[in-house]
Amino acid sequence: MNTVSHKYRQSALLLLTAAIWGSAFVAQQTGMDYVGPFTFNAARNLLGGLTLLPLIVFFSSRKKRTLPPDASSGNGTQSKTLWAGGILCGTALFAASALQQIGIQYTTVGKAGFITALYIVLVPVCGLFVRKRVQPKVWFAVLIAVAGLYLLCMTDGSFSLQKGDLLVLACALGFTIHILVIDHFSPLVDGIKMSCIQFFTCSILSAVCMLLFETVNVSNLLHAWIPILYAGILSSGVGYTLQIIGQKGLNPTMASLLMSLESVFSVLAGWIFLHQALSGRELSGCILMFAAIVLVQLPGFSKTSAVS
Q1: What was the pLDDT predicted at 303?
Q2: Does position 308 have pLDDT exceeding 70, yes or no?
């Protein structure tokens, strides 16, 4: 597959990821009506990991049939890299998702959506510390995307950081680290296996915090089964796996811009399914966001290189 075709295929996967995450936002909100943030994250990530196990078995058996007998050399090193990547991704995912679920209880949905999506700015900034150089035009696209997110989410025109805002800002940093860790490990290991490990890691860490800080109620869990199923299978099992596969070989700044469309899709989903009309300000934000995505997709626009 040539470079351009690969780029568009990976971009399409990340757009689908953003659409799944955006539509799953309703499930996350509904689930919090019945259970605490750690309980919700423990259940959804456990379900996400279990969802991937049949796929891993299927692809592993097919791979064994196609590989020559002596193709197992170096598997030990690759296995260590896989587990290291999965655990690090899961730890970053745990921190980011926990901060988001807790913070959203103390701030508005609009502020949470905008502040979380600030990872599109933090990714290139933090990427500079891991030898990633970004062209000036990409920074211009990032500024357009940030302006779009502001119009889309900050509908009251104000911006003041409260307790919840600070927690969600920390969440944005967690997702930034998550994206950069995936960017490092995804070319080296099987994306589906690494995704499965990250879910179980995140589920275990969430379960520990659940037992320490929350009261587990089976009845409440049963009431939240639909949101947990949706968030676990689609948002976690499908969405984060598509993220890992889609980020492979793609500029992490471009990847973060594509995934930031989660905010746009969440508003559009509310409009379509909940009949919530978009204001002119929100439509302007959507237009700016899509303009940034189109700009960053232009040939030769998003190349990066290691700093020598």
Answers
A1: 44
A2: no
pLDDT at 7: 80
The values of phi and psi at residue 302, to 5°, are: -120, 25
To which H or E segment does residue 78 belong?
Answer: helix 75-103
Both tokens assigned to 275: 């009949």
Cα dihedral angle (181, 185, 191, 196), rounded to 10 degrees? -60
Please choose, from the candidates 91, 84, 83, 105, the residue with its C-alpha nearest in 3D space to the C-alpha of residue 45. 91
pTM: 0.79
Which residue carries 């890992």 as its tokens? 244
At which residue do the structure tokens 């926990």 appear?
A: 98
Element (H, E) at 305: strand 304-306
Q: How far is CA 238 from CA 14, 49, 143, 229, 231, in A?
A: 11, 10, 29, 12, 9
Phi, psi torsion values for 155, nearest 5 degrees: -70, -20
User: Quick check: 133 pLDDT over 90?
Assistant: no
Half-sphere exposure of 246 (CA within 13 A, CB side): 25
Residue located via tokens 């499930």: 27
* Maximum separation of any 2 CA atoms in the chain, in Å: 64
First to last CA, the chain: 29
Cα-based distances in Å from 157 to 85, 149, 265, 282, 294: 40, 12, 21, 11, 26
- Amino acid sitting at position 134: V
Cβ 264 vs Cβ 299: under 8 Å? no
